[in-house]
Structures are given as C-alpha cells and as structure tokens.
Amino acid sequence: MTQRKVSVWQPFFLGTESSRAAVDAANELERLGYSRIWFSAGFDHKLPPRFRELLDGTERIGVASGIASIWHTSPEDTAAFTADAERAHPGRFLLGLGASHSVLVERDGTDYRRPYSKMVEYLDALDAAGLAPERRVLAALGPRMLELSRDRSAGAHPYFTTAEHTAEARTTIGPDKLLAPEVAVVLETDPEVARATARQYTTGYLALPNYTNNLRRLGWTDEDLAGGGSDRLVDALIPWGTAERVAAGIEKHYQAGADEVAIQVLNGGDDRAFPAEAFRALAGILI
C-alpha cells in the first residue's frame, strides 16, 4: 500500500464554475493539506482544459479525472493530454478511466456492448501511444475490472460503494496498487435531514445497473435498493453526522485497505456551491 492520502471529489463546482473561482478553491484545498482533487471529465470528446487550469494554478496538489469515459474520449487524445500534463507538472495528473453507463452512452447513439473488452482495447491503445500504466487508474467495481486495474494500471478508483467493497477490492488488486474509493458524506446531525440529503444523491445512482449489480454482489437486496435506498444502505454508503462521526465513517475505508479516500461533500441539492466549511472541518480531523 502507498502512503495514506485524503483527497477531494468535487464533481460540479470545480468543473463548471469560473476558472478563477475553481483555482481559488483548489488553492484552499491545497493549503488544508488535501492530496488530490478528483472531478468528472464529463462526456465531451476531449478532456476539459479545467484539469490543466487547476494544475497550472496550484503548486503541489494532485488532479485526477474521476472519470474520463472510454466511450466518449479517444485514447490518443487522453494519452496526449496526460503526457502534456506530466511534462508540465510531473507526477501530479492522474488519468481516471471508466466504462460509464449504458444510459449515458446510448443516448449518443453508441451501442453499449462488452464494456470490459472496450476497456482492454482502450488500454492497448494507450500503451501504443506511450502512456505508462502508472499514470492511469480504472473506475473498477466488479472482480474482472478490478483485476484489470491491477494488471494494466496504477490501481482502482471505485465509486458509490461501501467499506466492505473496499476490503474486497484490496484483496483483489493486492497490497501494492493504489486503491482510492470515492466516499460521499453529509455533515448533518439530524437523521431525517441527513438521510433525505443522501437520498437526493443515491436515487440517481441506484437507477444505474453497474452500481446496483455491484451492491447485490455485496449482499444488498432489492428492498435495500428501492426508494433511494434503505436506511441501512444509506448509512453504509454515506457517512453522516458531525465532522467527527463522518471522519469515523471515512476511517472504515482506510481500515479496509484504502490508500486514499476521495471525499465528496453533499450539499442538499446545492451541488454547485463549494462546501469550504465542511472540507475545513474534515481536514482538521483527517489530515
């Protein structure tokens, strides 16, 4: 395992706000001691320039795509982008790749078939373009994709899953590969409010088979998956409560074998606002 890191997963604010606001936020996260910023590459045909803007505007913090879709980007473009970022900022950009979801891929008219084979082909093309496996990770959930992340990349970046999955992923990828799960959290002590906030997030993801199939593999039932998730499932997926209680939930992933946890703070529907106070509170405990 690599040295433990505490990171940030911030899908909307850092990707869609003005460049100045995003860089200011990134600089605060860097000052707080966070190791890396993850955010979505979206569904355009090239990686957005915001990744470079954040790298250029900060000094040390890492930046990672969480994730770049292998159906929307070309391996040649992503390899070139990653190589350019590596030249300018050695060791700071990490290419996170994922097979996305059929509902997102097929809306563009693409036939979503054999995503595992598609990923293998994409990695073959990255190899041919000269991108080292150490500069990429896979958004892996199931056993085959986890094994592929072990064999063909620096490690795995699971999303929307539990500490039990983190333990299984560590067993699959072995002790020496990066394991960096995303963990969404809610800093709210009222159980009803906290779970309602969590369900604003879980409801959409529980409509995606990639995630529900993974949860079923872990033993969760159709009853758990219905209605935005049972209380038991919501509590397992999303630590909530005081900053100390949330930090304890995140610690479960480290204890299960994570090297790095990418924390996503849920804002109760205001996902385009940067939750600075929450990240400050969590940094004071975890870093």
Helix and strand layout, with pairings?
Blueprint: E1 5-9, H1 13-16, H2 19-32, E2 36-39, H3 50-57, E3 62-65, E4 68-69, H4 75-88, E5 93-98, H5 102-105, H6 115-128, E6 136-138, H7 143-152, E7 155-156, H8 163-173, E8 178-179, E9 182-185, H9 191-205, H10 209-217, H11 222-225, H12 231-237, H13 243-256, E10 260-265, H14 276-286
Helix pairs in contact: 2-3, 2-14, 4-6, 8-13, 13-14
Describe the structure.
Helix content is 48%, strand content 13%. Strands 1, 2, 3, 4, 5, 6, 9 and 10 form an eight-stranded parallel beta sheet that branches. Strands 7-8 form a two-stranded parallel ribbon. The mean pLDDT is 93. It contains 14 helices and ten strands. With 287 residues, it is of the alpha/beta class. It has one domain (5-286): TIM Barrel (Alpha-Beta Barrel), CATH 3.20.20. Helix 2 packs parallel to helix 14 and helix 4 (75-88) crosses helix 6. The two termini are 18 Å apart. Residues 18-128 form the Luciferase-like domain. It comes from Actinoplanes siamensis. This is LLM class F420-dependent oxidoreductase. One of its GO terms (molecular function) is oxidoreductase activity, acting on paired donors, with incorporation or reduction of molecular oxygen.
